[in-house]
Amino acid sequence: MPETTTVTLSPQVLSELEPVVAETRESVEAIVNEAIVEYLRLWKKRKRREQLAREYEALASLWQELSEDIASEKWLTPENEALVIFEKSLN
Question: What average pLDDT does this structure show over 55-81?
Answer without folding.
Answer: 80
